[in-house]
Design brief:
single chain, mainly alpha
Length: 161
């Protein structure tokens, strides 16, 4: 299942840490994953806004899917770098402008990770660690030994020995 790709418990830990640090945080939103690196056209940017998209990025979908397949809790920290080209009162986005904002965001990201890490040490009650429990459709006796060995790290706990 991938309906909710973000772990609510990790998201909550990040929000709590960010609020304690006084960082400007938003809980939730709609992320659009696009191929990149590229900038949107003004028309694309306007369409995304009509769809209710809050953040546009290029990596989140792949990261979230891989984390789910590895049964790893996952949450996104999206630090805005620009308003894309939809915001008429802002200059159009440039690589130089993005890099300058990213440089300023690095300090906040480091503080957030350092503050959140201790919160994640306690066991969580989420289902992330058992995401593959019902994902194997192949009958266990039909899985070739070489496939079992190759996939043991991810699915071994779900296959009878």
């Amino acid at each position: 299942m991938f309906a909710d790709p973000v772990c609510a418990e990790v998201r909550g830990a990040l929000l709590g840490s960010g609020q304690e640090l006084g960082l400007r945080m938003h809980d939730g939103g709609t992320y659009l994953n696009m191929e990149g690196p590229q900038f949107s056209t003004r028309a694309e940017s306007r369409i995304y806004r009509t769809w209710g998209v809050d953040v546009i990025g290029m990596t989140n979908l792949q990261e979230a899917r891989l984390a789910r397949e590895a049964e790893i809790c996952y949450a996104t920290v999206a630090m805005a770098t620009d308003y894309d080209c939809w915001h008429e009162s802002h200059e159009d986005v440039t690589v130089e402008a993005i890099l300058a904002v990213m440089g300023r965001n690095v300090g906040n990201a480091r503080k957030l990770v350092a503050a959140t890490t201790p919160r994640l040490a306690a066991p969580r009650g989420c289902a992330c660690g058992r995401a593959l429990a019902n994902a194997i459709l192949t009958a266990p006796d039909r899985i070739p030994p070489e496939s079992r060995e190759r996939l043991d790290l991810l699915i071994g706990k779900y296959l009878p020995r």
